[in-house]
Design goal:
Length: 366
C-alpha cells in the first residue's frame, strides 16, 4: 500500500510543480496581463487539465490500482486517490474561472469606445488651379448662352485632321507631332475635334465651348508639356460675322480680367478657319502700359499685351464636312490653352509645376 500511496503522492507533486510553473502567473491572478497573454495561459491550463485528469493521465492509471490494494485498506486508499484527484480538479477549476473573468474583462476593455476622443478629421482637398480657372471661364460662357461640350480624347484621323480641313501633307499629321495608338488612332492634338462632333450631333445653329485635354509630342520644358488643356469655342448661325467673334472674345476677356481690358486681333493662319487671327488682351498686371513698379512688366515682357489664342471664321470646308450649308450658315471658332493662362495669372515661370502634384505648390490655391 505504501508503494501505491507514494505513487499517488508523486503524481500530486508533479501536478503542483507544473501548476505553479504555469507561466508563474496563475497564482498572481493574472494581474496586468494583456489579452493575448491571458489567452495563451488559458491554452496552457487546458493542456494541464488534459494531462492530469484526462483518460491517459497518471491519476487515471492510479485509480486502477484501487482494486489491487488489500481489501481492508482499499476504502482508505480509494479516499486518498479521490482526494488527490479532487485537489487537482479544484485547483484547475479555480484558476480557469478567474482566468475566464480576466479574459472577459480584457476583451471589454479593448472594445470599449471612448466617445469623447475627438475624431480624426480627414484633411479637406481642394480643386486644382486648372480646374478652378476652367470653371471660371465656363461660368462666363454659360452666362453668355454657350453650352458646354465634352468629347473623346482618342480620335480617328478623320476627326482630328480631315474634317478640320487639315491637309494630308500638313506637318501636324506627322507622328513626331501627334501621339498615335498602336492601332492607328490619334490622341487629339486640339479640342477643335469637338467642333465637328458637336455640329454632327446638335446640328446648327449652335453655341458651345469645349474644355478638354489635348496631346502633342513636345519635350517637357518650362512652357511645354505633352498634355495640356484647351478650351474651344464655336458659334454657328445665320449671319455670323467676324464682328461677332471679336465682340464675344472681347466681352469674355472683360468679364475675366475687368472692364478696362482691351483686345486685339492679328491676322494669322489655321487650316480650319478663314480668315484666321490670333487674339491678345491688354496685360492685367500693368494695365497694358508695359511698365510695372517702375520697371518692365514681367507678365507681358513690357509689351503691354498678352498673346492668348487663335480664332477665325469657320472654314466653309469644315461646315461642309459636317453637312452644314455654308451659304446659309457661317460661324466663328476660337481656342486657347489653360496652362499658359494659369501661369500668367499666378506668375508661374514653369507650367510643369501644375502637373507635378507637389502638395506644397497646390495648397497655395486653396
Ligand atoms: Zn504687363
Amino acid at each position: 500500500m505504501s508503494d501505491e500511496k507514494r505513487e499517488i503522492e508523486k503524481i500530486k507533486e508533479i501536478f503542483e510543480r507544473e501548476f505553479e510553473g504555469l507561466s508563474g502567473s496563475v497564482k498572481s491572478k493574472f494581474e496586468g496581463l494583456g489579452l493575448s497573454a491571458l489567452e495563451k495561459l488559458q491554452k496552457e491550463l487546458n493542456e494541464l487539465r488534459v494531462k492530469h485528469t484526462g483518460k491517459k493521465s497518471p491519476l487515471s492509471g492510479a485509480k486502477k490500482l484501487i482494486g489491487k490494494v488489500a481489501p481492508d485498506q482499499r476504502a482508505e486508499f480509494g479516499k486518498f486517490v479521490q482526494s488527490v484527484g479532487k485537489t487537482i480538479e479544484n485547483k484547475i477549476e479555480d484558476a480557469e474561472a478567474s482566468l475566464k473573468s480576466r479574459i472577459q474583462k480584457a476583451k471589454l476593455e479593448r472594445e470599449k469606445i471612448d466617445v469623447t476622443i475627438p475624431g480624426r478629421r480627414p484633411r479637406p482637398g481642394h480643386l486644382h488651379p486648372i480646374t478652378l480657372l476652367r470653371q471660371k471661364i465656363e461660368d462666363i460662357f454659360v452666362s453668355m448662352g454657350y453650352a458646354i461640350e465634352d468629347d473623346r480624347e482618342i480620335e480617328t484621323d478623320y476627326y482630328n485632321f480631315d474634317a478640320l480641313n487639315i491637309p494630308e501633307n500638313h506637318p501636324a499629321r506627322e507622328s513626331q507631332d501627334t501621339f498615335y495608338t498602336t492601332d492607328g488612332f490619334a490622341l487629339r492634338s486640339q479640342t477643335s475635334t469637338v467642333q465637328i462632333r458637336a455640329m454632327e450631333r446638335r446640328g446648327v445653329p449652335l453655341r458651345v465651348i469645349a474644355p478638354g485635354r489635348v496631346f502633342r509630342r513636345d519635350t517637357p520644358d518650362q512652357t511645354h508639356t505633352p498634355m495640356f488643356h484647351q478650351i474651344e469655342g464655336l458659334c454657328v448661325d445665320k449671319g455670323i460675322t467676324m464682328a461677332h467673334l471679336k465682340g464675344t472674345v472681347s466681352e469674355w476677356l472683360r468679364r475675366m480680367y475687368g472692364k478696362e481690358t482691351k483686345t486685339r486681333f492679328r491676322p494669322s493662319y489655321f487650316p480650319f478657319t478663314e480668315p484666321s487671327a490670333e487674339f491678345d488682351f491688354s496685360c492685367f498686371k500693368c494695365d497694358g502700359t508695359g511698365e510695372f513698379e517702375r520697371g518692365k512688366c514681367g507678365t507681358c515682357r513690357g509689351s503691354g499685351w498678352i498673346e492668348l489664342g487663335g480664332c477665325g471664321m469657320v472654314h466653309p470646308n469644315v461646315l461642309k464636312n459636317c453637312g452644314v450649308d455654308h451659304k446659309e450658315y457661317s460661324g466663328f471658332a476660337f481656342g486657347f490653352g489653360l496652362e499658359r493662362m494659369c501661369a500668367l495669372m499666378y506668375s508661374l515661370d514653369d507650367i510643369r509645376l501644375m502637373f507635378e502634384n507637389d502638395v506644397r505648390f497646390l495648397e497655395q490655391f486653396r
